[in-house]
Amino acid sequence: MQMKRGHHTVNKVIACVLSFILIIMAIAVPAHAEEKQVETTPSRIPLSKLEETIDAYVASYEKYTAAVSVVAIKNGETIVNKAYGYADIEKQRKADTSTVFEWASISKLLVYTSVMQLVEQGKLDLETDIREYLPEGFFKKLRYNDPITLMNLMHHNAGWEDQTAAEVFYYSEDETLELGETLRKNEPKQIYKPNSVVGYSNYGAGLAGYIVEEISGQPFYEYVNQHIFEPLHMNDTSIHPTGQDHPDLAQRRNEIEGYTKDLKLIPENRVYVTFYPTGAAIGTAEDLGKFLAALMPVDDSNVLFKNRDTLNEMLSTSLYYDGTSTPRFAHGFVEMEYWVPTLMHEGNLKGFSSKVVFDPASKFGMVVMTNQSFEEIYYYGLIKEIFGDNVNSNRITSEGGGYFQSARRPAARFTDLFRQLDITKFSKAELSSLYNVVEHNGEVEKISFTPYMDYLPVSKWKVNLIVISFIPVILAILFSVTALLVYFIRMLLYKLNKRGNPRIDFNKYHLAINFAGVALLLNLFIIQTKLRFPNYPGYSSLRINLMFNLLYVVLAVAYLGLLIYKLRKSNYRKKKKVMYIMSGISALILAAFIVGWNLYV
Description:
The chain is of the alpha+beta class. It contains 18 helices and 19 strands. A nine-stranded antiparallel beta sheet has the order 3-2-1-14-13-12-11-10-9, sandwiched between helices.
């Protein structure tokens, strides 16, 4: 009996021990399983398969690819760093991880980071009127008295018109100007009230870079070298206006060519950026990856800022789409909702497209750099593959469609004419399904299908007025062509009939102004051709064309003055008088067209 009781006691002890073990295992196994959980990209691709996935993606689009460099960062570590394709197709020079690409507008992230460093030091305030940081009388063309802040520069909503491509790019290092001087020289008109409209502004970002210069006492590129590139060991990157602070890097940049989406070589693809902080950076994708990693530090250590709170502030939402809770900008970084919320920035320059996208929460990000202008396969397609579909959209049930025009437009520059022709009509269905829309009392006030700019409604009356304004211009050109043809036919008939030449008299002025009218048409066609993608002409290459337009205005005024004088002093036959007067009216119409659309120097 005693033995049975002891045996029972032993069983109870064993049962207790086993229960304890099972409890421990129940607690430990989930933790162990979680530890073993496979890490993935936002689109659920296992990180262990990421390189293989990218390889397969590139292979499937190889025939459409010039060169592409891809870097992926996770928890501060580079997990993919590969280059594909050819830096120079004609010379069969392959791209590698040391290939130098253009950052283009991604350069602006260096501006915003520099500003936030100075904010952290108490030297700048994001809500202070920037005129307090600039030399007195810096601006000459402000339309509104509202303050313009650094936040406005980060959000592209200070209200400036857009610059022409000719003002943003140049081709010779000899044209380089000091940043403050070039900002004064190329100051745009302010056409919107600050905070009212988003219109992407290279001038605004360049101005923020100049403020960094003024406050730090260093040229912007020197400031960035000291406070960003050197601490991050970005030895293969430069944001000097011409890259000459790093000559070997500039040489490596010249060894890569730029191409269109369909792989056509773009000649003269080495351009320099007038407001250079906005787009002058050149370097390897690996170096850009180092900058990206610094934006997602894995612990409290932070190379870019002394205080982690400053980085958190910079990457926090600072602007929402109007009337919504949808994030738009985080202090210059674009907020984009893929399968996870991300921050990103894009860059396009003549022959180059670059993009950086990252998810601060999971500390995963990617860099994609190509030598193809407005490239889409990697710029959009690969990013979608890794981050999932873009889901940003605020949809409405608008009562109807309408005409819209980009808020990013010139208003007092010669390209305004060509931008006005880009007015687009959107149907109700298109507005409802595709765009972020701001609506008031049933009327659409603006739409935004990219974070970088709003599109504003254009009245049907204005659209019709623009169309109607071309009718007299076309008639004036047709008259000039007809007048020349009639004169040359008369000359031919005189020759055939052996009657000599027709009397010259005032005809020489009449012929000259009509010949100039036809030449004006050809000149406008040349300007439009030069401005067509992917040319990006320098202003110097357009100067002679714009000067000719101005010369035409002078000739038209001179002709009208001479015509009035001659009509008062001489008696012409009614038929000739009508022809001379019609030529004068045509010249007046064409001169008004040139002046009205700012088509002159």
